[in-house]
Amino acid sequence: MSTALPPSTDVIVVGAGNAAFCAALAAAEHNVSVLVLERAPEDEAGGNSRFTAGAFRCVYDGVDDLRTLMPDLTDEEVAKSDFGTYTEDKFFDDMGRVTEYRTDPDLCEILVTRSKSTMQWMQSKGVRFAPIWGRQAYKIDGKFKFWGGLTVEAWGGGPGLVASLSGIARRNKVTIAYDARVTSLIADDDGVNGVRVKHHGKTVEVRAKCVVLAAGGFQANAEMRTRYLGPGWELAKIRGTRFNTGDGIRMALDIGAMPTGNWSGAHAVGWDRNAPEFGDLSVGDNFQKHSYPWGIMLNADGERFIDEGADFRNYTYAKYGRVILMQPGQFAWQIFDAKIIPMLRDEYRIKRVTKVRADTLEELVAKLEDVAAAKALATIKTYNAAVMTEIPFDPNVKDGRGTGGLAITKSNWANTIDQPPFEAYAVTCGLTFTFGGLKIDTSARVMDSDGIAIAGLYAAGELVGGLFYFNYPGGTGLMNGAVFGKIAGTAAGQRAAQSP
Ligand SMILES: Cc1cc2nc3c(=O)[nH]c(=O)nc-3n(C[C@H](O)[C@H](O)[C@H](O)COP(=O)(O)OP(=O)(O)OC[C@H]3O[C@@H](n4cnc5c(N)ncnc54)[C@H](O)[C@@H]3O)c2cc1C
Q: What are the phi and psi torsion angles at 108 (to 5°)?
């Protein structure tokens, strides 16, 4: 539905993903008018948030906390589950460890300490959550044991989350305009007071007391990613939306905002070698191939090139995409045998998968397209001989079942590849989102390059820099967007309510 944009409003939110809607809902609590401007047409709206599985990394001190997020949880479900805890300390440790202690301590503290209350706030608005039975729990002795600190997902995954947030926003009198690409900020010495927006092909100005930028990173912009991430990155596939081309970052930098964070870093995973250039909503995140810790990966030279079992998947998957991109031909094959095939995640069983299957290793390596077969066979045999089979395989803990004497060790979950049938899956680099972005303070105000807040300008989500470096703990993107989206929206709503 196309309606003309109003000439002015109290708060403009740029984008219509998770961070944007959390900002819009928080602003609307202050009885101000809120306009969400979404670049995509409605059928492609929702940004990367819509492509997710909807997993949120949040602090909980036990099942009572989880019940506040998921009041539908039955006693029977609780009885059959070992949810454990995910404490603030654990979240801090994870953020510190995976970012090599570069995460901005002030932003990280807010992210961690407000994660639970922000989820509770979302739940109070009507967002439904459920335990991630499928991907984050293994059944042991009849109980589902959760692992990796990632326990809760939005009902209906990313599509469910975006549909739910859009509906809640509308019920809270937020106006949403689709096909509305914000091209620049209107700003003067007093700060930001509106945007220029191309709405259904026509450029208009909309004035506002505050603007919240939640327009995502620059991953879908081949020129920017080659410029900032480096040579070769134009060849990566984009896992999510084609609309996150760095507009929000660029328009803020144009008025003097400070860039910060890991501009040459990004979240990038192993992704089907034949996936399309951008994400496909009908497949969602199922082009990813995340069971590599239980197998091995070979490159075009038939060599292993990384410790597949260095840590739980949650803590390595986001940095291994880059490693695959740097291999000859930008691809790798993941190899598994009959012992592991039944354990492979659901995404290995989709129709659009690049897969080969064989009954002998000789036959398997011959089927690995673009791979030096003889070397691949030798690598598998050498690896098999190096597996410490005396240590039992346990997928729920870092089992220490590694390899001995290889140039590239496998630290955990080393299983021999010797029981037919054998399967191999071809992956390339799937880029999720970029890490560099705008500098904000703990009130989500965008800072200028002199370190002074730009009046009336806030930012949240993917386009904020400083939280993630090198790597990222799974489920933190949505949590980050929600926490800082709420903070940005609250600040913008308060400011707008107080302005004449
Ligand atoms: C396949 C996949 C799976 C993922 N799984 C998870 C997961 O399970 N858990 C997790 O925490 N994270 C996950 N992530 C990461 C997560 O998607 C992001 O970190 C998070 O959704 C970012 O939210 P956001 O609101 O900042 O950006 P987005 O949701 O990307 O929203 C940005 C919005 O801005 C709009 N926009 C862009 N430019 C303009 C413009 N000029 N004018 C107006 N609008 C504009 C876009 O159309 C979009 O609506 C996944 C990502 C992908 C791609």
A: -65, -40
